[in-house]
C-alpha cells in the first residue's frame, strides 16, 4: 500500500533527518513509528502526504509514485491527525468535520449522516456535540473530533502524529482502546507516530523503531519484545517500563486462551484485545476495569480478569522454573 524505496531527507540546513529508508506498509495495517525526539518520525510521516518533499528515493501509494498524484487528490485521500489538533475555533464541531467532505462535494445529507455515524462511533453523542464550538469540549473530546475529522471523507490512509500525547493518562488510555476497536471496524491503513513504547505495543500490528533517521528494527510487538535487535531497542523497551524479562510481556492473549485461562462467553461487539497483545498490556488495562474481552483467531471468545492473569502467570513460573 505505502512503499518507501531508499528514501532520504536532508533539510537545507544540512540536517540528515531521514536516511535510506525502505519500508512496506501493508493495506489495513496499523503501523507505528517510534523513537526518541528528533529521530525523524514526523519528517517520515509528512513525506507520505507531501507536506515535506523527499531529497532522494521514492514513496509509492498503491504502486503509484506520490509525485504522480494530483496533490489535492492525494491529501483528500489521506487523513491527518496532529498532537494538538487545530480545530477552527469559530466553527462548530460539525463544520470542522465537514471541511473535506464539502471540498470533494459530497451532498449535505450524506455529510450529515456521516458525521452522526462517526461522532457516535467515538463516544460523542452526535446530537449533543455537533453544534458546539471546540472551546466547549475537553481536550480528550477535541482529540476525538480530530480523529473523526481525519476519517470524515473516508480516506484509505490515516496519518497520526503523536495524537494522544497531550492528553491526561485516563483520556489517553480510553482513546487508545477506542482506536483499537475503531481500526478493527474501519480496516484503514493507519500510520501512527509515538514516542511511547506502551502505546506502540498496544496499538501496532508492526512497530518501526527509528534512531538518528534510520530504521533500527521493524517487526511485530511480540517479536520486538522477545528479540530486541540491539541494546538501543532493549533500552528503549526498558525506558517504557516494558521489560522483556518480565514474565507478563513474554506471553500473549493467545497463550492464555490456548491454556484455557479465560472465561468463555458472549462478547458484545468487538473484543478489547486481539491474540497478539502481550499479557503485560492486558494487565495494565485490568488496573482500571474488572474484566476485558478478548479474541482468538479473529473471533471474540470471552473475557479475562486479573484472577486469570495471576493464575496464568503462576502456572508459567511453575512450568518454566529456572528458565524464567
Ligand atoms: P521527530 O518527529 O522524531 O521528533 P523530526 O522528524 O521532527 O523528528 O526531526 C528530525 C530531525 O530533523 C531533527 O534533528 C530536527 O531538528 C530536524 N528538523 C526537523 N524539521 C526541520 C526543518 N524544517 N529544518 C531543519 N531541520 C529540521
Ligand atoms: Mg515529531
Automatic annotation (TrEMBL):
It is an enzyme of class 7 (translocase). SMART domains: AAA. One of its GO terms (molecular function) is ATP hydrolysis activity. It catalyses: a quaternary ammonium(out) + ATP + H2O = a quaternary ammonium(in) + ADP + phosphate + H(+). Residues 2-237 form the ABC transporter domain. Pfam families: ABC_tran. Its EC number is 7.6.2.9. InterPro entries: AAA+_ATPase (IPR003593), ABC_transporter-like_ATP-bd (IPR003439), ABC_transporter-like_CS (IPR017871), Gly-betaine_transp_ATP-bd (IPR005892), P-loop_NTPase (IPR027417). Keywords: ATP-binding, CBS domain, Cell inner membrane, Cell membrane, Membrane, Nucleotide-binding, Repeat, Stress response, Transport. GO terms for biological process: amino acid transport; glycine betaine transport. It is a peripheral membrane protein. Its main location: membrane. It is found in: Cell inner membrane. It comes from the Bacteria. Belongs to the ABC transporter superfamily. NCBIfam families: proV (TIGR01186). This is Quaternary amine transport ATP-binding protein. The lineage of its organism: Bacteria, Bacillati, Bacillota, Bacilli, Bacillales.
Amino acid at each position: 500500500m505505502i512503499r518507501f524505496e531508499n528514501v532520504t531527507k536532508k533539510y537545507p540546513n544540512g540536517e540528515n533527518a531521514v536516511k535510506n529508508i525502505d519500508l512496506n506498509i501493508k493495506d489495513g495495517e496499523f503501523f507505528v513509528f517510534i523513537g526518541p525526539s528528533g529521530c525523524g518520525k514526523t519528517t517520515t510521516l509528512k513525506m507520505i502526504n507531501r507536506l515535506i518533499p523527499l531529497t532522494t528515493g521514492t514513496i509509492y501509494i498503491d504502486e503509484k509514485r506520490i509525485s504522480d498524484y494530483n496533490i489535492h487528490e492525494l491529501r483528500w485521500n489521506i487523513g491527518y491527525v496532529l498532537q494538538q489538533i487545530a480545530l477552527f475555533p469559530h466553527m462548530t464541531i460539525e463544520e470542522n468535520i465537514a471541511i473535506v467532505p464539502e471540498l470533494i462535494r459530497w451532498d449535505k445529507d450524506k455529510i450529515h449522516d456521516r458525521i452522526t455515524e462517526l461522532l457516535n462511533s467515538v463516544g460523542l453523542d452526535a446530537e449533543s456535540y455537533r453544534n458546539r464550538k471546540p472551546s466547549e469540549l475537553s481536550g480528550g473530546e477535541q482529540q476525538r473530533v480530530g480523529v473523526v475529522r481525519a476519517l470524515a471523507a473516508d480516506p484509505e490512509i490515516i496519518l497520526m502524529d503523536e495524537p494522544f500525547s497531550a492528553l491526561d493518562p485516563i483520556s489517553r488510555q480510553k482513546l487508545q482502546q477506542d482506536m483499537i476497536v475503531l481500526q478493527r471496524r474501519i480496516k484503514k491503513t493507519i500510520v501512527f507516530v509515538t514516542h511511547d513504547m506502551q502505546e506502540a505495543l498496544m496499538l501496532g500490528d508492526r512497530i518501526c523503531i527509528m534512531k538518528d533517521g534510520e530504521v533500527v528494527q521493524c517487526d511485530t510487538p511480540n517479536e520486538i519484545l522477545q528479540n530486541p535487535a540491539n541494546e538501543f531497542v532493549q533500552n528503549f523497551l526498558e525506558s517504557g517500563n516494558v521489560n522483556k524479562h518480565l514474565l507478563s510481556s513474554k506471553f500473549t492473549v493467545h497463550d492464555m486462551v490456548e491454556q484455557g485461562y479465560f472465561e468463555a462467553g458472549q462478547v458484545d461487539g468487538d473484543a478489547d484485545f486481539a491474540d497478539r497483545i502481550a499479557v503485560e498490556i492486558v494487565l495494565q488495562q485490568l488496573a482500571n476495569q474488572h474484566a476485558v474481552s478478548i479474541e482468538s483467531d479473529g473471533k471474540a471468545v470471552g473475557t479475562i480478569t486479573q484472577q486469570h492473569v495471576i493464575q496464568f502467570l503462576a502456572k508459567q513460573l511453575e512450568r518454566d522454573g529456572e528458565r524464567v
